[in-house]
Design a protein that fits this description.
mainly beta, 4-stranded antiparallel beta sheet, elongated
Length: about 90
């Protein structure tokens, strides 16, 4: 069994590596409303401003060297300022 404290360390390490959210390969968001670790979860929240694009189809979390940490394909029309929330959870799989 993996200790909860180790899963928490992995979450903290991942949170510290994430420096930006990239939307549709063109919009870089570096100002997160929320970026924290709760137990073994990395919780992120950012705003895509209305008018930045009509539809979101791809969201990437990237590090300072532009390395991709996570990618998600979505379909999200932007009809007003839109809050994006993402949670990355570290768990032991048996």
């Amino acid at each position: 069994m993996i200790k909860q404290s180790y899963l928490h360390e992995l979450a903290q390490y991942t949170k510290d590596k994430i420096t930006k959210l990239v939307v549709n390969d063109v919009l870089e968001i570096t100002d997160f409303n929320l970026k924290e670790v709760d137990a073994n979860n990395v919780e992120l929240e950012a705003v895509i401003p209305f008018g930045a694009m009509a539809t979101v189809t791809k969201i990437e979390l990237k590090g300072s060297m532009n390395d991709v940490i996570a990618t998600k394909t979505v379909f999200l029309p932007i009809v007003e300022d839109t809050i994006i929330q993402q949670v990355i959870t570290f768990v032991e799989v048996l």
